[in-house]
Amino acid sequence: MKITSRFTVAVHTLLAIHRFEGKSKTTSEFIAKSVNVNPVVIRRILQMLKNAGIVEVRAGSGGAELSKDPSSVTLYDVFKAVDSLEGELFHFHENPNEACPVGKNVHKVLDEYLENAQKAMENELKKTTLSELFQKLSDIEFPGGKTSKNI
What we know:
Number of strands: 4
Strand order of the largest sheet: 1-4
Structural class: mainly alpha
Strand content: 5-15%
CATH architecture of the domain at 2-86 and 129-145: Orthogonal Bundle
CATH superfamily of the domain at 2-86 and 129-145: Winged helix-like DNA-binding domain superfamily/Winged helix DNA-binding domain
Shape: elongated
CATH topology of the domain at 2-86 and 129-145: Arc Repressor Mutant, subunit A
Largest sheet: 2 strands, antiparallel
Order of helices and strands: EHHHEEHEHH
Radius of gyration: 20 Å
């Protein structure tokens, strides 16, 4: 099937929550401006992240904040929290011809490789934590550790 944009929107959302913590209320409207989507999209993502225990959302215009230590949350956790995969990563065509020696055996030939590829992707996502992404964002934004007083 396909990996939905919910995953990258969720990561963007978490980066924004962390980046603006203590500086601005990270409401769905505020985050939506950064992501450039409708606030309803952000509210749905925040609800999924809340259900996974990754964020807390304060009612009204209270905003959102992380509820877990960023070093304990991996990209895989975010991926799973927002149901990023619709079906399996690789969707097999529905009806291979069972009368054909290839059609009859194509699953036996390919399934293991496709499952291994999906597991490899998931294992790669498990290697990166939110704190690593926060640090990378900071390094890009403030080379040499300099910060801006306007933020």
